Amino acid sequence: MGKGRLEAFSDGVIAIIITIMVLELKVPHGADLAALMPLVPVFFSYVLSFIYVGIFWNNHHHMLHASSVVDGRVLWANLNLMFWLSLIPFTTGWMGENHFEPLPVALYGVMLFMSALAYTLLEKALIARNPRDAVLALAVGKERKGMLSALLYLLAVPAAFVHVGISFALYVLVAVLWFLPDRRIEANMFSN
């Protein structure tokens, strides 16, 4: 089956996720800079999560662009990814509203880890469905960056109970690693 509906569905879910996140930003009750200060943790959480949603969306787009067909396994793997991504507004809001307390920061890392795992499962389902000489299979290779990201997310979870700054440093590090879409796919697409 074609992949058009899968792409449209995923784009819609991701657009809703971003909309929910921005609706969580409450307007301050005051017109001076002091009124904005209590919103700094919420805004920082929003920015970090917006970047993560953008990273997942960009790489999801590239991955689907490199694939020619999907099947039921791919559809379920994609739903799994959308489920974990749909928790971003909740974990983002909880973390920001509670000024980065350890448990919400740790749960944010669990959500990121599960999203990364779901992305990997979708990637494997697409590779299994598409021909072995397809662009995606050639581009992914050993997937070291994905494994490193998952490890850093896992390390960030217990680190939140030591010092939340360590967890945030790890979350930002992974975001920096993935800020640009995975160029391996584009390189393989244009080399053929």
Automatic annotation (TrEMBL):
InterPro entries named among the record's database cross-references: TMEM175-like
Pfam families: TMEM175
Substrates-to-products reaction catalysed: K(+)(in) = K(+)(out)
Transmembrane segments: 12-29, 35-55, 75-96, 102-122, 151-180
Presence of the UniProt keyword Transport in the record: yes
Domain of life the protein comes from: Bacteria
Localisation: Membrane
Keywords: Ion channel, Ion transport, Membrane, Potassium, Potassium channel, Potassium transport, Transmembrane, Transmembrane helix, Transport
Lipid bilayer topology: Multi-pass membrane protein
Main subcellular location of this protein, as a coarse class: membrane
PANTHER family: ENDOSOMAL/LYSOSOMAL POTASSIUM CHANNEL TMEM175, ENDOSOMAL_LYSOSOMAL PROTON CHANNEL TMEM175
Family as reported in the entry's similarity comment: Belongs to the TMEM175 family.
Record-given protein name: DUF1211 domain-containing protein
Lineage of producing organism: Bacteria, Pseudomonadati, Pseudomonadota, Betaproteobacteria, Burkholderiales
